[in-house]
Amino acid sequence: NAGVTQTPKFQVLKTGQSMTLQCAQDMNHNSMYWYRQDPGMGLRLIYYSASEGTTDKGEVPNGYNVSRLNKREFSLRLESAAPSQTSVYFCASSEARAGVKGDTQYFGPGTRLTVL
Amino acid sequence: AQSVTQLDSQVPVFEEAPVELRCNYSSSVSVYLFWYVQYPNQGLQLLLKYLSGSTLVKGINGFEAEFNKSQTSFHLRKPSVHISDTAEYFCAVSEGGTGGFKTIFGAGTRLFVKA
């Protein structure tokens, strides 16, 4: 049981390049999330997928797109990377069963992205 | 709108000393409260959470937190810390409903445990 996995672990891009961050979970969770973590700002939600087949914007969606490929996988794409997107990116998932309150999120190990 | 304030960005403490990490929240409705821990170069993992019932919540690794509704606080405590507790701690609040997309995280408190 690997939990939440993310690839790659590290990436360096030049301004204007594109890339896709991959995330997969093996816990049969309904909801998946992408966050970015910046010093002193905690975690900010970029996009989320409440259930398979749906995606919605979070707090900071500009410059990103997502795809919920199936129940297991949720990818984050940077179409034209900018230095402001230098950050650590975390994918998370949660069970999100109807009627279950206080959903615990399970996080992947993160991707450290540097945009030059 | 809900928000979370972690009152200390860094807390240095000596090994075996007690520690308290402070968290205040604002919300107009009932909330669920969480503490997550992030060890160096890892993702976050749940320490404990408050959903309802007893206001004192016990978590993993000897941590506990107390929900105080009148003061809108959810402070995290440990009576005796170890070097291995060095990590960043995040308080989070969710206004309920199903799913974590309504969860707001604080900016984090970095705990340094010194020998």
Structure, explained:
The complex is a heterodimer of chains A (116) and B (115). Chain A has no helices and 11 strands. The mean pLDDT of chain A is 93. Chain A starts with a strand and ends with a strand. With 116 residues, chain A is an all-beta fold. Chain B has strands at 3-6, 10-14, 19-21, 23-26, 32-38, 44-50, 56-58, 64-68, 73-78, 87-94, 103-105, 109-114. In chain B, the strands form 3 sheets. In chain B, strands 2, 5, 6, 10, 11 and 12 form a 6-stranded mixed sheet that branches. In chain B, strands 3-9-8-7 form a 4-stranded antiparallel sheet, with no helix packed on it. In chain B, 41% of the residues are buried.
Topology:
The complex is a heterodimer of chains A (116) and B (115).
Chain A: E1 4-7, E2 10-13, E3 19-25, E4 31-38, E5 42-49, E6 56-57, E7 64-68, E8 74-78, E9 87-94, E10 106-107, E11 111-115
Parallel strand pairs in A: 2-11
Antiparallel strand pairs in A: 1-3, 3-8, 4-5, 4-9, 5-6, 7-8, 9-10, 9-11
Chain B: E1 3-6, E2 10-14, E3 19-21, E4 23-26, E5 32-38, E6 44-50, E7 56-58, E8 64-68, E9 73-78, E10 87-94, E11 103-105, E12 109-114
Parallel strand pairs in B: 2-12
Antiparallel strand pairs in B: 1-4, 3-9, 5-6, 5-10, 7-8, 8-9, 10-11, 10-12
The SS-based structural class of chain A is: mainly beta
Order of helices and strands of chain B: EEEEEEEEEEEE
Share of helix of chain B, binned:
under 10%
Structural class of chain B: mainly beta
| Silhouette of chain A | globular
Give the percentage of residues in beta strands of chain B: over 45%
Radius of gyration of chain B: 14 Å
SSE series of chain A: EEEEEEEEEEE
Low-confidence stretches of chain B: none
Can you summarize the main beta sheet of chain B?
Answer: 6 strands, mixed
Low-confidence stretches of chain A: none
Question: Which range best describes the helical content of chain A: under 10%, 10-25%, 25-40%, 40-55%, 55-70% or over 70%?
Answer: under 10%
The averaged pLDDT of chain A comes out at: 93
Please give the count of helices of chain B: 0
